[in-house]
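Reopening this one. Same input as before:
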Amino acid sequence: MTSGGMPVPGRSRTPDHRQESTNLADILERVLDKGVVIAGDIRVNLLDIELLTIKIRLLVASVDKAREMGIDWWEHDPTLSSGQRDLAEENRQLRERIDALESGGAPAVEQAEREEPGG
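Same output, byte for byte:
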């Protein structure tokens, strides 16, 4: 490598890898723990006429940190939460009612309506 402080020709220097270097898992842990906000706007103008504006707001954080900040939209989205099961049950009941109507079984429909709360 070096001889008396001078580089020796013909030898390549290998990069020093410190054991203290931060690995990807440490960086990800810090980002999720603290949260990162990325914000930006993209505007497309033609002759001073605004044709398109895209506003980008991105928050990267852990679920716990997001809840701490008051963000919990995924808990109320029926496709992402247990509400999906309620939709599946409602879908099943509606299919039964449609089948009953198509087969001429109106009493079955009236019975299903009486069983539904609020229906």
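So the earlier flakiness isn't reproducible anymore. For the record, The mean pLDDT is 75.
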